[in-house]
C-alpha cells in the first residue's frame, strides 16, 4: 500500500462516523449551558403568565412564586366578561383570511419577480420593497382617510384589506428569494414539454417552495393575530373588535385584575402555538435553506 493510501485510510478511520460506532461528536459543555440559560430566560415570562392566571387576585404580588392554591376562576371570568368566544372567532377569521390572501398574492408576485421578464420589473419591485420602510404610525392617518372615503371604515373588510396590503410586500420578498433557489432548468424542461407558465408555477415551483410558504404563514399569522394599532383605530364598534384590543381593555387606570388578564393572554397564545407546532419542520427547513451547499 502506498503512503498516500495509508494516510487516507488513517483519516477515514479517525474522521468518519463509522469509525466511532456511528456516534456524532458531542457539542461543548458551554453550548448546552448557554442554551439552557436562554431557554430559562425565554420560558420564565410564559411560566409567570400561566402561574399568575391560576392565582387568586390578592396573592399575585404577595405570595410565593408558585401559588399555594390553584384556581381556574380567572378563565371563567375572562370568558364571560369579554365575550371571549366572539372576539376570538373574529381574530381567527381575520388571521386565516389574511394568511390565505397574502400567501396567494405573494406566491404569484414572488414567482413573477423571480422568473419572469417584463418591463419595469426592478422598478416595481423596489417600489413595493420601499413600503417596508414606512412605520405603521406614519401610515395610519392616510389609511384611515382612504377607508373612510371608500366606505370601509369600522368594518372587518376594511381591516382585512389593511392586513393583506401590509403583509404582501414582506411575504413577496421572502417568496421571491425561495423561488430564486429553484433551478431554472426545471422550468425550461417543462416548457419544452408544452407546459404553460401557470402550470410551471403550480406543479413545479410551488411544491418545491413549501418551506417558504410555511415561513410566510407563521410570520403573517403571528403578526395579524397580535396586531393592535390598526384594529383599535379602524374598528370603532366594540363588538367588532378582534381579541387583542379587547384584552387591552382589561388593564385598568388604577388597578388591574392580573389573573383575569393573564388568563386571557394564555388563551390567546394557543392558536399561535398550534400554528407553529404544525409547521415547525417546514419553517426550520425554510430558515436553513441555502445554508449548506454541496
From TrEMBL:
InterPro entries associated with the record? MetI-like, MetI-like_sf
Primary subcellular site in the record, as a coarse category: membrane
**Region described as Disordered:** 1-24
Q: Where are the transmembrane segments?
A: 29-51, 88-111, 123-147, 159-179, 200-222, 258-277
Q: What is the membrane topology listed in the Swiss-Prot or TrEMBL record?
A: Multi-pass membrane protein
Q: Which residues form the ABC transmembrane type-1 domain?
A: 88-279
Going by the UniProt record, its keywords in alphabetical order are: Cell membrane, Membrane, Transmembrane, Transmembrane helix, Transport
Q: State its location(s).
A: Cell membrane
- Output the Gene3D superfamilies linked to this UniProt entry: MetI-like
Q: Which family does it belong to?
A: Belongs to the binding-protein-dependent transport system permease family.
Q: What is this protein called?
A: Carbohydrate ABC transporter permease
Upper lineage is:
Bacteria, Bacillati, Actinomycetota, Actinomycetes, Micrococcales
Amino acid at each position: 500500500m502506498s503512503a498516500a493510501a495509508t494516510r487516507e485510510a488513517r483519516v477515514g478511520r479517525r474522521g468518519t462516523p463509522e469509525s466511532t460506532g456511528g456516534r456524532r461528536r458531542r457539542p461543548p459543555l458551554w453550548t448546552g449551558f448557554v442554551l439552557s440559560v436562554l431557554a430559562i430566560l425565554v420560558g420564565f415570562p410564559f411560566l409567570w403568565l400561566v402561574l399568575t392566571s391560576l392565582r387568586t387576585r390578592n396573592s399575585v404580588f404577595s405570595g410565593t412564586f408558585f401559588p399555594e392554591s390553584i384556581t381556574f376562576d380567572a378563565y371563567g371570568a375572562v370568558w364571560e366578561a369579554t365575550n371571549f368566544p366572539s372576539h376570538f372567532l373574529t381574530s381567527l377569521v381575520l388571521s386565516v383570511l389574511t394568511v390565505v390572501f397574502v400567501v396567494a398574492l405573494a406566491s404569484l408576485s414572488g414567482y413573477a419577480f423571480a422568473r419572469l421578464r417584463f418591463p419595469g420589473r426592478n422598478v416595481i419591485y423596489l417600489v413595493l420593497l420601499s413600503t417596508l420602510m414606512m412605520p405603521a404610525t406614519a401610515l395610519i392617518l392616510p389609511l384611515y382617510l382612504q377607508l373612510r372615503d371608500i366606505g370601509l371604515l369600522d368594518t372587518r373588510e376594511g381591516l382585512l384589506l389593511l392586513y393583506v396590503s401590509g403583509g404582501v410586500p414582506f411575504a413577496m420578498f421572502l417568496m421571491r428569494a425561495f423561488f430564486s433557489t429553484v433551478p431554472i432548468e426545471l422550468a425550461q424542461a417543462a416548457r419544452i414539454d408544452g407546459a404553460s407558465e401557470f402550470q410551471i408555477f403550480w406543479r413545479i415551483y410551488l411544491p418545491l417552495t413549501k418551506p417558504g410558504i410555511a415561513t410566510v404563514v407563521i410570520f403573517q399569522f403571528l403578526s395579524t393575530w397580535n396586531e393592535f394599532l390598526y384594529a383599535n383605530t379602524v374598528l370603532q364598534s366594540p363588538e367588532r373588535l378582534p381579541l387583542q384590543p379587547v384584552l387591552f381593555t382589561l388593564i385598568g387606570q388604577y388597578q388591574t385584575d392580573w389573573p383575569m388578564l393573564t388568563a386571557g393572554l394564555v388563551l390567546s397564545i394557543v392558536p399561535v402555538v398550534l400554528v407553529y407546532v404544525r409547521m415547525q419542520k417546514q419553517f426550520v427547513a425554510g430558515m436553513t435553506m441555502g445554508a449548506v451547499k454541496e
